[in-house]
Amino acid sequence: MDIQAAAGRLESYAADAIIVNLFEGVTDPNGATDTVDKALNGALRALIKDGDFTGQAGQVAVLYPQGVIPARRVILVGLGAPEKLTIDGVRRAAAHAILKARDLKAAHVASVIHGAGSIAIEDAARAITEGSLMALYDYRGQKSGQKPEAFPKRLDLVVLDEKDERAAAGIQAGMAVAAGVEIARDLANLPPNICTPAYMAQVAAELAQTVGLKVEVLERRQMEVLKMGALLGVAQGSDTPPRFIILEHNAGRDDLETVVLVGKGVTFDTGGYSIKTAEGMVTMKGDMSGGAAVIGALGAIAGLKLPLHVVGLIPAADNMISGHAYRPQDVITASNGVTIEVISTDAEGRLLLADALVYASRYQPSAVVDIATLTGACVVALGEGIAAGVFSTDDRLRDTLLASADFTAERVWPLPLFPEYEKALESQTADLKNTGGRMGGVGTSAVFLKHFVDYPAWAHVDMAGVMSTMGDVPYVPKGATGYGVRLLTDFASRWAARGKA
Ligand code: BES
Ligand code: MN
Ligand code: ZN
Fold first, then answer.
1. How far apart are CA 203 and CA 197, in angstroms?
2. Please, are residues 23 and 31 in contact by the beta-carbon 8 Å criterion?
3. Given 102, 350, 433, 486, which residue is catalytic?
4. What spacing in Å lies between the alpha carbon of 77 and ligand 3's midpoint?
5. pLDDT tens for each residue of 223-245
6. Residue 303: partners with Cβ closer than 8 Å, 6 or more residues away
7. pLDDT at residue number 160
């Protein structure tokens, strides 16, 4: 769907549907809702007066003007209480309205900019763009037969003054972000026989071409030279070879601070010899969601032209069983020389991340954030579809991520890096065990990762609980959420702006 800013008045707009809104508790609307209502001889006020429409968030009604105004339909969407409207409320309202327009097969839609009274026009236009495009995401996968026609085809965000460029700027930003989310969702939704490490690398390379990123892809031989024994240990069980994907925005700019984003790219996690149950395995094509989020975020960051040097690292491998697979009690050596006794081959994500976190150090980053579907324990702690856990060695980094979580509504919740967790990782045969047992499983996983970090500001985001959804948020359809793209992109923009305010 194309989105653009257009100058005009909604009541005189010729479209298949126009979208207006109502705050909860308002009986005498103003703005576009008022002018459209007056043009309709009070049809909207009648709906309100009769109690058929209260303006509750998520409520949607459709009216048919029958030629009284040029638009064929009016979609009225509730915004909830005026004092409670947030940017995410705008995203959600836009999503509800555009999904109704899709159901009605409306090709050309025009909308008021929700929340423009209390939210900056640029932010509101961006939120509508994000909410609408993310809501319309429709993964068809390998379904045979003709793809149904996509509706709507065009959305105009109507501004009064044609010289007002704020809406257009917001739309551009929203489109860059939504495109990143789409890439991440596609990767995570694709089956593991298609979305292999090499496939992820190919998608990353194509994206790099489109948005102007530097890309480098390391193969097994190069990982051997780098002595990435932890990553290679996981990868050795699969006939599908691993890849280490490096994306770079503003490569070579030494006047900018550097941030490294690391994403777990396990394209399928069987658990290895510490095999998962059939039930536990059935969602594991999504175990590369962190890597997908980093690829999508790099795309969005490039699209937004953020003034920051950003490196994305995606260690990608399958975790499989075979005659050449790693096994429990193997001792492997990561690229910083730390030796690891494998207790569970199912604790593979931290092994991939270990070598990537070591690699991150070469960029002398001012911040490193990794994101991974790392532990079931994090899901037990925080629940499904509720929040990711965040650990950090630096308060400012954690606070920035919390601010981004608030702005994007991709929730994170702080968890502790207590030194006592180290005890559980002590090994008889190596520097570290790769698991610390059932108790405190999310904390011990984070403390494990910390052994591969030698820079001052590092954060780890465990997104195991939020990689997929049943579709409770209107702009996050069933399946892979694309979680992390918006969080990491917003984080990068805050980190770029830090100190400059
Ligand atoms: N990919 C899983 C974690 C996971 C579980 C992600 C559920 C999404 C949903 C990870 O590799 C894993 O298997 N972790 C183990 C660690 C344990 C062996 C210490 C776990 O959580 O059981
Ligand atoms: Mn695992
Ligand atoms: Zn895993």
1. 10
2. no
3. 350
4. 41
5. 999 999 999 999 999 999 999 99
6. 175, 176, 177, 179, 180, 211
7. 86
The angle that helices 349-360 and 441-450 make with each other, rounded to 10 degrees, is 30
The pLDDT score that the predictor gives to residue 501 is: 53
Annotated active-site residue 38? The verdict is no
Q: Which of 276, 398, 411, 498 is catalytic?
A: 276
* pLDDT higher than 90, residue 464: yes
Output the residue whose Cα is nearest ligand 1's atom 22: 376
Cβ atoms of 451 and 434 closer than 8 Å: no
**CA separation for the pair 87, 332 (Å, rounded):** 47
400 backbone dihedrals φ, ψ, rounded to 5°: -65, -45
Ligand nearest to the CA of 344: 1
Ligand closest to 271 (CA) is 2
Q: 333: which strand partners? A: 339
- The strand pairing partners of 312, in sequence order, are 247, 261
248-275 pLDDT, tens digit each: 999 999 999 999 999 999 999 999 999 9
CA nearest to 311, candidates 368, 268, 267: 368
Instruction: Provide the CA 3 distance to its chain's centre, in angstroms.
Output: 21
Q: Is 276 noted as a catalytic residue in this protein?
A: yes
Conformation bin of residue 375: beta by default, left when phi > 0, alpha when psi is -120 to 50? beta
What pLDDT digit, counting tens, does each position of 17-37 carry? 999 999 999 999 999 999 999
CA of 479 to the centre of ligand 1 (A): 19
Longest distance between any two alpha carbons in the chain, whole Å: 82
Q: Tell me the per-residue pLDDT of 60-89, one tens digit each, with 9 for 90 and over.
A: 999 999 999 999 999 999 999 999 999 999
Domains in the chain, start-ordered, CATH in brackets? 2-159 (3.40.220.10), 178-500 (3.40.630.10)
Q: What is the pLDDT of residues 56-68, one digit of tens each?
A: 999 999 999 999 9
